[in-house]
Specification:
The chain is an alpha/beta fold. It folds into two domains: 1-337, Rossmann fold; 341-444, ANL, C-terminal domain (GMP Synthetase, Chain A, domain 3), CATH 3.30.300. The chain contains eleven helices and 20 strands. The chain has an eight-stranded mixed beta sheet, with helices on both faces. Helix 2 packs across helix 3. The N and C termini lie far apart (58 Å). It binds 5'-O-[hydroxy(phenylacetyl)phosphoryl]adenosine. 5'-O-[hydroxy(phenylacetyl)phosphoryl]adenosine binds next to helix 6, strand 7, strand 8 and strand 12. The site of 5'-O-[hydroxy(phenylacetyl)phosphoryl]adenosine has 20 residues, from helix 6, strand 7, strand 8 and strand 12.
Amino acid sequence: MKRNCWNDQNGRFLPEMSLDFMPVDKLKQVQLQRLQATVSLAYEKVPLFRSRMDEKKLKPSDIKSLKDITLIPFSMKKDLRDTYPYGLFATDMKQVVRLHASSGTTGKPIVVGYTQEDMDVWAQVIKRGLLATGYTSDDIVQNFYGYGLFTGGLGVHGGLESLGATVIPVSGGNTERQIMIMKDFEVTAIAGTPSYFIRIIDVAEKMGIDLKTLKIKRGLFGAEPWSDGMRDYIEERTGIKAYDIYGLSEIIGPGVGCECECQNGIHIYEDHFYPEIIDPETLEPLPDGQEGELVISTLSKQAMPILRYRTRDITSIEATPCPCGRTIRRIKRIGRRSDDMFIIRGVNVFPSQIETALLRAEKALPHYQIVLDRKNHLDTVEVKVEVSRDMMSDSMSDMDSLNKRFSHSIEQILGISVLVTLCEPDSLPRSEGKAKRVIDNRAIGGSL
Ligand code: DLL
């Protein structure tokens, strides 16, 4: 597993990859210099950061060590909404060569911008992820992340081009055509959301195409939480290796971090993005190994520097080094956000827990949807589970016992019982991008 850090498997010199293996002292030095420059840029050019720092009587020159980062006020999604569209930009629009936007849960999207230098860094970090997961310039890569305002498609595209791979910019949707391309274009690697790939697996099975017989060796999946169970499902059904890539628009898009071939956590490209873990209630920093909310500061972004951004993603910094030898730290894979949590009868529930329960009950990944509602002032949850053709039976008692297996498994994990409804094959909506697992009818008044 431990490969010479300066070369790829063909012995070619890879300067980008060497950044993953920088001596820790050197890395910290780079981080401090870049943090100081970013704080100065944000203070001088972005009124929101300046006024927040002024309120705390904090000047850029007060940041003397990396620890001083905790003096800086947090920022969050609301700040991007409140300054819509360009209020957090630190450069003239003349320098901005790309805009992307991410749909917010309410009304207007949030807008993010990139200078050419930002674009180069973006391609570089994704290239480092591709190299760490075994992609090479010989690969023919089908990229089914959505192209457009979403950062996934064009972001990963830039990294693939920088690697020198052959990119097929197919974007999401038209599943049968995706499968035809995979086969006919002799695709060797893929990139896209895991939930859409699960859909591709289903459709391929229906078309009588065994993905294991194709040339695909690896996939880079992200943009939404996906469990270890889902990874096993993908790898077993298709014979590919499935790797996790993480990122968010506010920081750069995909490529804030990526797994390596060890598949044991996401290495953060710490020379560009500085990670911290905080307690989301007290906002105090937490030590390595302890789970909390991930906060990220950009260290090299020019168009839109962001300081101490609260991602809402729940994870921890891995305390132990990775066997791959990379010195950049890892975070645990992200299974949940602090805000897709819902509370049922006093119990905090995350969609990923329900997914784990369903997988545990049937060892197959059913399609499911969680419907939240409010009846008589009480929150209710219904888990709709689509029965696959293998699970279907004409016998009522078989279906009843299947329902009980799902309900029991959920109760074991959550400690509360929830209503499980079995649905016909192909009856639940499928995603072509990020899966929408939770339908929340409470906000629109619920049933009462
Ligand atoms: O989803 C960027 C991206 C594109 C990442 C393609 C990876 C691949 P946003 O639309 O701004 O950006 O959504 C960011 O998605 O805060 C997480 O909650 C979630 N997310 C992204 N990657 C992962 C992952 C893109 N690998 C939000 N695991 C983040 C779990 C992820 N959640």
